[in-house]
Automatic annotation (TrEMBL):
SUPFAM superfamilies: beta-lactamase/transpeptidase-like. It comes from Kibdelosporangium philippinense. Residues 18-375 form the Beta-lactamase-related domain. This is Beta-lactamase family protein. Gene3D superfamilies: DD-peptidase/beta-lactamase superfamily. It holds the Pfam family Beta-lactamase. InterPro entries: Beta-lactam-related (IPR001466), Beta-lactam/transpept-like (IPR012338), Beta-lactamase/esterase (IPR052907).
Length: 408
């Protein structure tokens, strides 16, 4: 199996770990990109895009990056906030009047970004294909009663986040979420990054390969066990009430790729992820493209919600206005040790099964990793973490307490 692409000599360990992912960690097809001070220092890809056909993963291969999508959606909101068009501390109902139902009058835009709105799932059963009907989903969320008192705790809004934040973006900007993202971010930065994939790009997509949770020895996270055992629980409503999106590979369909699902539906690759975060690693501007001003980048990296037990994924997590922050859960039971170990200044988002994109403004680093074989956990696993670790080591960072977060 050949690895293709380029890397600067000081980042040779990233190449070594990328090769180990295929040799030792079950990688099938993947790409990884790293930029430092705006320059691409790692750009690698390899493996198989589609085991059913034997198609190789090429420089042009795209893949669903799952919850890395949330970083793109959150960035849209931050652009509007930076321009003064959106106030994150204002009630959602200021921009979306229909949202003020069933005790949600006081829910703030910040609560949506922080997964504190109590809308991690919907109690009312969704019809087949619901995720492909924006109006249906936003109307259902506007009418819904929160699963907990908004603002009192957070629970990962794994599949609803994009409809919630995306509708605020639509109401404020006058553009659908995918159009706003393309006009304001992907287009100016010339990114191969789509929130609604054009049909002519479909042949480039590597299908997602879900993990086999029934395989002997697989460590199944508690969130999956609780969800399947109790579909009416918060984890169950989050993962199972999806209008069929999570059933039998429906997420690989043309219909799914064409729709705007701002929580999990973005199609891109490592270059796209690293490219989106590159301006944020440089104070908000790359070349002649300014996404936000430096003070907004500081807002993006500031922890705004932390919880010892996330109400939806059942492990500790930390958020920074729509982005994930470094979180070390290796003290938990073996099946729940899902962690993301970054430097404290970094912010970004992982994707179910392992994908990751982030910016580290202090190190002036952006990072992207995308793959088709999902791991058993919702977030990052050993494949992505090994690439992050190699990147930080190349930058001269170290860890306090072996395996912990990264420091200068």
């Amino acid at each position: 199996m050949s690895i293709h692409g380029t890397h600067d000599p000081e980042f040779v360990e990233v190449l070594a770990e990328f090769e180990r992912n295929f040799a030792e960690r079950g990688e099938i097809g993947a790409s990884v990109t790293v930029t430092v001070d705006g320059k691409t220092v790692v750009d690698l890809w390899g493996g198989t895009a589609d085991p059913a056909t034997g198609a190789e993963w090429t420089e042009e291969t795209l893949v669903d990056v799952w919850s890395c999508t949330k970083g793109a959606t959150a960035l849209c909101a931050h652009i509007l906030d930076d321009r003064g068009a959106l106030d994150l501390k204002a009630p959602v109902a200021k921009y979306w009047p229909e949202f003020a139902q069933n005790g949600k009058e006081g829910v703030l835009v910040q609560h949506l970004l922080d997964h504190q709105a109590g809308l991690a799932g919907l109690a009312e059963q969704l019809p087949e294909g619901a995720f492909y009907d924006w109006e249906l989903m936003t109307s259902a969320l506007a009418a819904a009663k929160p699963l907990w008192t908004p603002g009192t705790t957070h629970g990962y809004h794994g599949l609803t986040f994009g409809f919630l934040v995306g509708e605020v973006v639509r109401r404020v900007s006058g553009q659908p979420l995918a159009e706003f993202f393309d006009t304001e971010i992907a287009g100016p930065l010339e990114l191969d990054f789509w929130l609604s994939l054009p049909e002519e790009q479909e042949t480039r997509v590597a299908p997602t390969i879900p993990p086999d949770l029934t395989k002997p020895g697989t460590l199944v996270p508690s969130v999956y066990m609780i969800a399947t055992g109790d579909p009416k629980s918060t984890p169950g409503l989050m993962l199972l009430n999806t209008g069929g999106y999570m059933v039998s590979g429906e997420f690989n369909s043309r219909r799914a790729h064409a729709s705007t699902i701002g929580s999990v539906g973005a199609v891109t690759n490592a270059r796209g992820l690293a490219g989106m975060y590159r301006p944020l690693a440089l104070g908000g501007t790359f070349g002649d493209v300014r996404l936000v001003r430096p003070n907004q980048v500081a807002v993006m990296g500031q922890v705004t919600s932390a919880c010892s037990v996330d109400a939806a994924v059942l492990v500790p997590s930390r958020f920074a206005s729509g982005f994930l922050k470094s979180s070390d859960n290796r003290h938990l039971a073996p099946n729940d040790q899902e962690s993301i170990l970054l430097a404290e200044d970094a912010f970004g988002h992982s994707g179910m099964g392992g994908a990751l994109g982030f910016a580290d403004p202090l190190a002036k680093v952006s990072f992207g990793y995308a793959m088709n074989q999902q791991g058993a956990s919702i977030g990052i696993n050993a494949r992505g973490q090994s690439l992050v670790d190699a990147t930080y080591r190349a930058l001269g960072y170290h860890q306090v307490n072996a395996g912990g977060s990264w420091f200068r």
